[in-house]
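pinned: reference chain
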Amino acid sequence: MIQTQKDLEQWYDTTDPWNYENSLDDIKRRDILLAEIPNGTHDNVLDIGCGSGFVTRDLPGKHIFGVDLSAQAIKQAQKIGKRRIKYSVADLFELQEHFPKFFFDLIIITGVLYPQYIGQSQTLVYHIIDSLLNKHGILLSVHINEWYKSQFPFLKLKEYMYKYLTFTHRLELYIKP
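pinned: its C-alpha cells
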C-alpha cells in the first residue's frame, strides 16, 4: 500500500521523526554515503527524498537542491539548512516538470525506492532519473537491501553492503555512460 500524503505530513509534523540527528547508526549511514561520493566538481546536485535535509546539508556542490514530497519535511530542512541549498516540495514522478531542461552532475536517492512510496514504478523512476542526470553524471543510491532489489540501468562503479539497524544497507554508485 502506498503511503498517503496525509500520513507523510503527519509523520513530519514532529521535528526529526526518524531521530536521525541522535542516532549513531544514522550518523554512520550519512558518513558512509558522503565518503563514497567521488571527488571532483559537482556543479548541480540533487537529493531526491531529502526529508529534513539530514544528508543534503553536507553534500558537496555549487548548486544543491533537496526535494521531498512532504511540505513539513521541507519546512524543517529550511530551518536547519544552509543558504547554498534550495529546498522545495516536489513529487518524484514530476521532477522532469520541476526541473525542465536542468541536468545534474550528482543525484542522491536514499530510502525512497520502496513499494510504500513508489508502488511498482521502478522503470518509470529509472527513466525520470536518466532524464535528469548529465552524461557521465553520478548516481548514488542507498536502500535497505531486504526491501529494494532492483538496480539502475547505468554502469555500476561500486556496490557496498553494510549493517544498518536490523537490516543491511546496499549502497550503489553508478555513472551514466
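why pinned: The first helix runs from residue 5 to 11. The chain is about 25% helix and 30% strand.
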